[in-house]
Amino acid sequence: MNEPQTELAIAEKRIGQLEAALSRRTELLEQRTAALANIQAGKAYKFAGAVQKLTARFFPLHTRRRAMLRSGSKMVAGAAGWALGKRAARNGPPPEQRHLTESTPPGEYRRWIARHEPNASQLEKQRAFPFATPPKISVVVPVYNPPAEFLEAMVKSVLAQTYSNWELCLADASPKEHVRPILQKFAAQDSRIKVQFLETNLGIAGNSNAALALATGEFVALLDHDDTLAPFALHEMATAIAANPQAEFLYSDEDKLDTAGERVEPNFKPDWSPETLLSRNYICHLLVLKRDLVERIGGFRAGFDGAQDYDLVLRAGEVAKRIVHVPRVLYHWRMHAASTALNKGSKNYAYDHGKKAIAEHLARTGVEASVHDGLALGMYHVIYLLKAQPLVTVIIPNKDHPEMLARCVDSLAKSSYANYELIVVENGSTLPATHDYYARLKLDPRAKILEWTKPFNYAAVNNFAARAANGELLLFLNNDIEAINPDWLEELVKRAVQPGVGAVGAKLYYADDTIQHAGLIIGMGGVAGHSHLNYPRSAPGHMQRLQYAQNVAAVTGACLLMKKTVFDEVGGFDEGFVLAFNDVDICLQVLAKGYRIVWTPDAELYHLESKTRGPEDTEEKQKRFKREIDLFHLKWGEFLKAGDPYYSRHFRLDRPDFALRVG
């Protein structure tokens, strides 16, 4: 009789805990709804709305008046920041001020171009390069009323290619009379230029398909009618195709042409990153696809105007045999009043169509989720449906610091996710207060205390606890972690259970609200380092990277969630890494098995880093640290040589602020 009564009591307690978690989630929703209502009711919000209406009335989009207003605003901002701007143009901001700009300073980028791009002599060598089997690349361009100078610059950039086995396929639906003569002139000059003049405008998807129908090449490259290619763009793509015979999908880095024609805002991209792609269309330009692949997936689809390329990328990414990132700036995206490169509000419908493209991709791949606007136009937020609540085993190694452990456990108890068990691994605590706290903690049926009696080894301690875990998911958590948002664990779980995801990490702050962790960069500091380290909590980050979920090579073990099956598959933590780099090592093991690592800013926590361990301030600790560095290089030397796939080789490894390697 006693055993059923005990099981009933435990079940009733679990029901109570689940009800409490549901109540917390309801409170959280109510709090956020109330906060939104307060913002909308505020004077600042109403004033901003009134200003926006007046601006739209007296300075309509796509008019000269709006362009003059924008230019005037830039002049005012430029005058106010002249002194800082002059220094930044020369050297870029210092590391402690890098957060003040989201993109690379122009002066830094000009020096990078001079150092890293081919000169005239190298371009001539490219023209003479003997490809064994040069693939024919069809450059596909839908044309609709571009300014004459932009259209001519686009065509000339193709004519200037150092790679000659190309054709330019243009479908023109322009009612403006200046367009046809320009296209006819170029078509008469070079037989590789094909033009179809459409009787009616079919929309950007239809016009793109018409241009695509002219293509006879093995590969197609997508180019907008007002943008330009680097002269070595097709040579680089042909070289990548030769090196990767299975490639069906290739993309490059890109930059922008400002209104003065200067190259600015380089976008150095990661290798193939599915979660990043669901947050924003980071692929964009230059995109080269095997023509057979484009035909198999049905080309461009109507109903996605403005995001037709995003929709194409998502569909192509689902079936492409091999996806290759070419880490060179091959495409120059022109900024002008009607382009989204300069004015993201010029095509608001594009962002709605972007959400539609993501939603259909998720449906095709069997993922239940909803798609919402991100923190800025062009960014998206996927909210996954959690159909079940798998048990999470939370593992916390601990030695004394009972007050810190209590804060960590309390923030876990306040989480909106209730289906967890807690394992605290006791490791030589001497304070009576610690053991008093353990006694209270044992009253919770979800918690148990395991004792580690051997010398401390972070990897071994966590492996020891994992063997006692009942959960489908393992959360490795430091005792100096304190949650900020109540749904942090739920957000991590939603990501961790997705197919192909091997581990998930959170956004961590120091106590002073600066960034401690936003994903690890392999190779930084010789082994691994934190991106955006010490940036303010509110900073958007380089190219807004602190604001959306993305793929990374590794996340910190201070808050690391992974499937138990994946943990077992990689053999757990390597116990050769006693204190350092064991988290980086296990993430690289996860990557090596073909899984993805995801970092999300939707789980925010404080981390009082190294509070338990302390600094590397003794000779013994420094020797141990050196041994672990040597072990990491021995084990992952080839990975270090190849470079972090999610961090461009063009960024420096001695700074966490995405500064360019200009030397």
Topology:
Layout lengths: L1 H40 L1 H16 L5 H17 L1 H10 L14 H11 L3 H8 L9 E7 L4 H12 L6 E7 L6 H11 L3 E5 L5 H11 L5 E4 L5 E2 L3 H11 L5 E9 L5 E5 L6 H6 L7 E4 H6 L11 H12 L3 E12 L13 H17 L4 E5 L6 E5 L7 E7 L3 H12 L6 E7 L5 H10 L5 E5 L6 H10 L5 E5 L3 E3 L4 H9 L4 E9 L5 E3 L2 E3 L5 E3 L19 E3 L6 E5 H6 L12 H11 L3 E12 L11 H24 L21
Parallel strand pairs: 1-2, 1-4, 2-3, 6-9, 12-13, 12-15, 13-14, 17-23
Antiparallel strand pairs: 4-8, 5-9, 6-7, 6-8, 10-11, 15-22, 16-23, 17-18, 17-22, 19-20, 21-23
Walk me through what this model shows.
Helices cover 41% and strands 20% of the residues. The chain has 663 residues and is of the alpha/beta class. It has three domains: 2-43; 129-382, Spore Coat Polysaccharide Biosynthesis Protein SpsA, Chain A, CATH 3.90.550; 392-514 and 552-613, Spore Coat Polysaccharide Biosynthesis Protein SpsA, Chain A. Helix 13 (308-319) packs parallel to helix 14 (348-364). The radius of gyration is 28 Å and the shape is elongated. The termini are far apart.
Percent helix, as a range, is 40-55%
Radius of gyration, whole Å: 28 Å
Say which CATH homologous superfamily of the largest domain is assigned: Spore Coat Polysaccharide Biosynthesis Protein SpsA, Chain A
- Helix/strand class: alpha/beta
From the 3D structure, determine the CATH topology of the largest domain: Spore Coat Polysaccharide Biosynthesis Protein SpsA, Chain A
Name given to the CATH architecture of the largest domain? Alpha-Beta Complex
The low-confidence runs, each spanning 5 or more residues with pLDDT under 50, are: 73-91
What's the level 1 CATH class of the largest domain? Alpha Beta
Helix run count: 21
